[in-house]
Specification:
Length: 318
C-alpha cells in the first residue's frame, strides 16, 4: 500500500511581511499597482504566509489593491491596520471585512497620543473591537508605543482585548528604541498572561530591529512583522531576509524559502529605488567575498551561513 508523502513541518513562527505598507512610508517611495503585484507575487513565491497591505491612514485608498491581488489569483493572506479612534473606523471596518483576511485595530498606548486618558483608550478600543467582532471572525489589536508605555498598562489593556475576542495582539517598538533584553522580557510577560497569539513589530532606529525580533521569537512570540530590505519609516524595520536567516540558523521554522531571498530583495530594490547595500547582511554583494589573506585558506570559517542558501557564490578577492 502506497503511503502519501508526509506534509512539510508547520512553521513555528509566522513572518508577516509589511513591505507594501511600511515601504510607502519611505520618502520618495510610491509603489504603483503593477509594482505591488510584482512584489506580492515574489513574496508568495518565497512562501511568506501573510502580507500587510493596508495602512491606517490610507484604508479606503489601499483596499482596491486587495481586490486586484485576488483577481490575479494570489493565495497569500492579506491584512491591514485601522485606527480604532478614527471618526470613520466603522465605515473602514465595513469596507475591509470580507476583503482583507484579517485586520488589526490600533490603539496607541502612549498618553501623548489621542485619546490621551487611559480610561478613554480602553473604552474606544473595546467598543470598536466589539463592533468589528460582530462583523468578522478575525480582528486583532495593535498597540503603537508598546515599548514606550507602562508594561502593566499594556498587559492590562491587552488582556481586556483578548477577553473581548481579539484574535491576536501586536506589540510595537514604534520608535525603535527597545533592546533585545527589554524586548525578551516584555514578550515573555505578554505570552505568560495572554491566551492569544502575540506578534512583534520592530523598527530599526538603533540598528537593533533584527536582534529585537529574534529576542521576541526566543521569548515565545507567535509572529514577527518584517519588511524586505528593512524598508520602512525612518531607519526602517526588521528585515525579512535577516530575520528569516537568523531563525533558520537557530532551528526556528518559518517556512520561508531562503533560496528566493536574493531575487526578492533585488526586486524590491528595483521597484523602490532604494538599493541593497553591498555590505548588507544575508543578501549584500560582498557577504561571501573574501579579501583578507588570513581568511583565504578556510573561508567558510568566516561565514555565518552557507552562501548557497540564498543562491550566492563564495568569491575570493585577495
Amino acid at each position: 500500500m502506497a503511503h502519501e508523502p508526509a506534509s512539510p513541518p508547520r512553521p513555528v513562527i509566522t513572518l508577516r511581511d509589511s513591505t507594501l505598507r511600511e515601504g510607502q512610508d519611505v520618502a520618495g517611495v510610491r509603489f504603483s499597482t503593477a509594482q505591488k503585484l510584482r512584489i506580492a507575487k515574489l513574496l508568495e513565491e518565497a512562501n511568506v504566509p501573510e502580507i500587510e497591505v493596508v495602512a491606517p491612514g490610507r484604508v479606503l485608498a489601499d483596499l482596491p489593491f486587495v481586490d486586484t491581488l485576488k483577481a490575479e489569483g494570489a493565495r497569500i493572506a492579506t491584512s491591514g491596520l485601522l485606527y480604532a479612534a478614527s471618526p470613520q473606523v466603522r465605515a473602514e471596518i465595513e469596507a475591509a471585512r470580507g476583503r482583507l483576511d484579517r485586520f488589526e485595530l490600533l490603539m496607541p498606548v502612549s498618553e501623548r497620543r489621542r485619546p490621551f486618558a487611559r480610561p478613554e483608550k480602553r473604552r474606544v478600543i473595546l467598543e470598536t473591537l466589539a463592533y468589528a467582532r460582530d462583523r468578522t471572525p478575525d480582528a486583532g489589536v495593535g498597540f503603537p508605543q508598546s515599548t514606550q508605555a507602562s508594561p502593566a498598562f499594556l498587559l492590562e489593556i491587552s488582556q481586556e482585548c483578548a477577553e473581548q475576542g481579539a484574535t491576536r495582539i501586536i506589540v510595537y517598538d514604534t520608535n525603535g528604541g527597545s533592546d533585545p533584553f527589554a524586548t525578551y522580557e516584555l514578550i515573555r510577560r505578554m505570552k505568560a498572561h495572554l491566551g492569544v497569539p502575540v506578534f512583534f513589530h520592530g523598527h530599526n532606529d538603533l540598528g537593533l530591529a533584527a536582534a529585537n525580533a529574534f529576542a521576541a521569537a526566543r521569548a515565545g512570540a507567535d509572529g514577527l512583522d518584517v519588511t524586505v530590505n528593512g524598508l520602512g519609516d525612518r531607519a526602517g524595520n526588521a528585515s525579512l531576509e535577516q530575520v528569516a536567516m537568523i531563525l533558520h540558523l537557530r532551528g526556528i521554522r518559518t517556512g520561508i524559502r531562503l533560496d528566493c531571498l536574493t531575487r526578492l530583495c533585488q526586486a524590491v530594490a528595483d521597484e523602490s529605488g532604494i538599493a541593497v547595500p553591498a555590505l548588507a547582511p544575508v543578501v549584500g554583494a560582498f557577504v561571501a567575498t573574501h579579501t583578507s589573506a588570513g581568511h583565504l585558506e578556510i573561508p567558510e570559517l568566516f561565514e555565518a551561513f552557507d552562501p548557497a542558501l540564498v543562491g550566492a557564490r563564495r568569491t575570493i578577492d585577495g
